[in-house]
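Standup notes
- HV: blocked on the assembly model, inputs below
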Amino acid sequence: MVEGLKLGEPLMVIEDLKIDFLTEEGTVKALDSINLTVRKGEIHGLIGETGCGKSVTSLTTLGLLDDNARIQGGHIYYREKDLLKMKEKKLRRHIRGNEISMIFQNPVSSLNPVYTAGEQVRESVVLYQDKNKKRARQIVLDELDRVKLPDPEDVYEKYPHELSGGMKQRVMIAMMLACNSNLLIADEPTTALDVSIQAQFIKVLKVLQEKNDLTILYITHDMAVVSEICDRVTVMYAGQIVETADVHDLFKDPKHPYTRGLIHSVPGVKTAIEDFETIPGTVPRLINPPSGCRFHPRCEYAKKKCSKVKPTLEGVPGKNDKHVVSCHFWEEVE
Amino acid sequence: MNIVETRNLKKFFESKKGTVKAVNDVSINVIKGETLGVVGESGCGKTTLGRTILKLIEPSSGKIIFEGKDITNLNEKQIRPLRKKMNIVFQDPVASLNPQMTVYDHLSRPLEIHNMISSEEEKIKRIIDILNTMGLKAEHMIRYPHELSGGQKQRVCIARALCLEPEFLLLDEPTSALDVSVQSKILKLLERAKSKFKVSYMFISHNINLVRSISDRIAVMYLGRLVEVGDTKKVFRDPKHPYTKALFASVPQPDPDKKVKIALEGDVPSPVDPPIGCAFAPRCKDKVGKICDDKMPELEERYDRRVACHLYD
């Protein structure tokens, strides 16, 4: 448990993080000075379209970037320690698992097919909780029960191929819970699941958040899921943060033109197709990203300044810096 | 008038574990000019149903009727002339395009095969016209798939399917691989193409909010069977089948004030050994009694739609 940290206090703070990837075609400027604060006890949504940098952000926090990645600047403070300055050995011993754990989109490729579900969860228990075999087994069974897997004894003995997708994903959470981490990073955890299983999964996360004060960074491209589960939301576009707000403020009163466009193109906000909004153009390639605000070529409010000066995150008055937006002309957006 | 109709269509697959009843006794029609949405969770048989209708896979039994003509037993050669009247767009545009062929190649090949054009000029004119309809330009003709974005690739796939001016187009999860801002553009283009070419759509998707927006009627599938079919607005306003109710309640809405309900516990049973009675009975909260476990409910006319549930016997 995080001692001395109250609910709502910053648990992880990302400051001016800049990351490039060296590729054969050139340097991909994947993250362009992003700022993000995840607070204790919240479910923080990180949303954006393909290639916006949301997964790169999460992988960086755990030091899991590929060899061709170059961190060009910035800090990731986890409880005031800079993760970017930490040695690999220290990261492994003190951060991964103990403090921050992660679940990925595809539970099939995240589980080892030759070990049973129970054995895989037990590995986390032995590493992070209790080395005694008998007690470890009991802890595993409790964890499997906690994620609402029916008949934990039975699931313990099952191999991944004998479990359904939803069950596999729950085994993944059990594994993460067994580490007793404080921060869970979930990268598109329900994208491969059916809606009914997704609903069950979301419920499990919500309960864990309330009972265990678990903090979750929830990465997804699905606006409906974000509105369902998140307390606060950060919207990314082409490697830049465009807006952060409480989930209600974001959906009811989005300030950035991109956020607005995104929300109004989601089926369900408007029912008739003719009312759907579209964002002209396509997401730019980050080898040669647009100058200034990276959204400006697609933005109907763009002016000369937008292509010249990169906007910084500024607070919306009356929101105590809880609603920040990165746009020169956000006050003109209707 | 029906453009496509199936009668008691079945498609069973043999597997090591037993017979998989992927499509089980499905009778459905697509009315000329409409969009029929087909929804259901993974493994419910919606994709198999679509492909069997187009005879991309052979049905096990039952009938497929296209424009009033029984096409169930037509062989590959006999069906070929019909191929230009019914077409398909797949989920993954990357896998659907040949990386060595330009957009022009992709669009000209079907026109040549079906002798739709008399001269090169006419061909180019037609290709440009269909590209424009899909929001692409003439200059895209010389591009290869890797030079296009995901949304553009899918627009080429739709253009290829529409260039033969089909009567019926099967759209199997056409926007699932795309980002939302691109998705809404594709949906608008599909609507535009529908009125321009007077084509009927069957739109298969697991995205229920999306099907709600695009379809005139909706068919809900569960474990190889239809459980409810009706007017989209009516079915959404007041779903009758317990599965439809539960499914709709599980769909997250992009509104923080609306929360999903967990209406479905457990998983979908295996299609290898489906329950004898109603397939949904083991998970159903509105079970009437023993009859649900013993007898398969028929899809019958109830109220303003068709429902397969003993609740309304």
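- HV (later): unblocked. Chain B touches chain A through 45 residues (CB under 8 Å). Residues 180-197 of chain B form the longest helix (18 residues).
- Next: hand off to the docking folks.
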